[in-house]
Task: inverse folding
């Protein structure tokens, strides 16, 4: 996949987000989509040794559609302005912690991992693990790879107040307020454009691999240890 060519297409799509323009440029989209599928297949294959549960997963089951569901949306444009994929056991609709790749203009390119919408049970189990034994999470976020790609540490929406059962004076109060548990690595458009297809593919893979220790901890914690 040529990341610069993909950004060019997505930039134009953002300015002509209608079915007529898309159909006129469908051959370009199909070519870029095929290249993205090849990269997703490559990333998935390379992640299997670190996460055997991904073995046998069809790469196409990781990739999100570009078509938007506008039925319940105030924004009625028919197409997303990014390509994206989610690597988790079961594919893109999995409730398990996973790794996410998104490519888009205006700073939309990113690698992220964790739990974006944890269930009530997952949230309770993760908070309990942080309460009982936060040292392991601290260690996972302090690895050289995590510091390289995710120097801002744990991201995601937080409660304004402490969740029930936890005191505001808790030493891990900041983490216990989290409603999402994410690590995020953004790539500016200029950086994406200067990378060759091979270098871009390698950079994304390195960031995806760096998510491994955090994802492993999160998977164990969300199931109660």
Result:
């Amino acid at each position: 996949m040529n990341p610069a060519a993909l950004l060019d297409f997505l930039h134009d799509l953002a300015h002509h987000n209608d079915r007529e323009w898309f159909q006129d440029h469908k051959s370009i989209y199909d070519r870029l989509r095929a290249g993205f599928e090849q990269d997703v297949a490559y990333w998935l294959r390379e992640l299997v040794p670190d996460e055997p549960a991904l073995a046998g997963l069809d790469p196409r089951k990781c990739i999100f559609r570009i078509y938007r569901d506008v039925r319940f949306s105030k924004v009625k444009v028919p197409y997303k302005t990014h390509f994206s994929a989610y690597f988790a056991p079961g594919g893109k609709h999995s409730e398990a912690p996973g790794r996410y790749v998104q490519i888009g203009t205006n700073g939309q390119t990113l690698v992220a991992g964790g739990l974006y919408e944890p269930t009530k049970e997952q949230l309770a189990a993760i908070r309990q693990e942080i309460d009982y034994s936060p040292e392991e999470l601290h260690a996972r976020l302090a690895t050289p790879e995590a510091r390289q790609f995710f120097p801002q540490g744990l991201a995601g929406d937080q409660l304004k107040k402490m969740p029930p059962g936890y005191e505001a004076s808790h030493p891990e109060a900041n983490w216990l307020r989290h409603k999402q548990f994410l690590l995020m690595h953004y790539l500016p458009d200029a950086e994406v454009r200067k990378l060759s297809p091979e270098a871009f593919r390698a950079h994304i893979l390195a960031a995806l691999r760096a998510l491994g220790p955090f994802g492993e901890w999160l998977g164990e914690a969300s199931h109660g240890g």
Remarks:
- The mean pLDDT is 95.
- DSSP finds ten helices and four strands in the chain.
- The beta strands are 82-87, 98-104, 110-115, 181-186.
- The longest strand covers residues 98-104.
